[in-house]
Every structure is written in structure tokens, then in C-alpha cells.
Request: fold
Amino acid sequence: MNEIQKYRVVTGTIGDDIHSLGIKVIEHALKKAGFLVVSVGIQTPQEDFIKAALEADAHAILISSMSGHARLLCEGMRERCIEAGLDDVLLYLGGNLSVGPAEWEEVREIFLKMGYNRVYSTSTMPGELVMDLSQDISAKLDVKRTVGD
Reply:
């Protein structure tokens, strides 16, 4: 088994969002790359993402939000992860994250300040996310190994 096959991720669409196509594409790309994907489906509350991440001992949580209401739906996620003991879980967010005209960098910065490690627009290709996730998990595990030595 190669290293990437040990990587466990939780995926889903948050809150009142019923859009499933984007996260299905991402899940397919992750599975094809060898990730173990635990999908929590659509219209999923933050607590269900966290519960699934705890049960799977996940390295990352990937959240999709296409409704434009991500700021409301995703606020407090990092804090809830920390409260649950998931201090070092990677948090990724992608989709149509805001309603109305907004500069992408401003939108991205809002979510980075909320504690998300990576934030993607709707134009991001799945391969970019897979590469970033592979590198981020690998780096995180390398740090743990170094600290544990």
C-alpha cells in the first residue's frame, strides 16, 4: 500500500446546500488518487463533519458550499474542531462562497482568517486540490514524525 492510501478525508456539502455535483467530482478524484473518502452527503451540519472525522481518524475535512452562504454556514468550524480534539485536522473549503460581487482574494481571506487551511473557487481543477491535499497531509505527518523522534 502506498502512503497516499493511508490518507483519510471527510467530504460533504454543508448546511442548507443541496448542490452535490462539485463534491462528487472531488470525491471521485480523491478516490482515484488513492484516498479513503468518507462522504457525509449534502445538507450536512458542522457537527456531522466533525463526528465523521473523529470516527475515521481523518487527516482532513473538505467542505463544499455552492449556495453563496458559506460565511454563515462555515463560521466557527475551526473552533468546533478544536473543541472535539481535532486541533490539527486540515480544513478545506471550496465552491461559490459568497453572494453578490466580491473580489476572490477578499473572500478567500475571510475563510483563511476563520481557520481554513485552503480555500478554493469554483474554477479550481480537482487535480490541484488532490495535489495540495497530498502535500499538506504529507507535510503534517512529517512534522509529527520529527516531533515524535
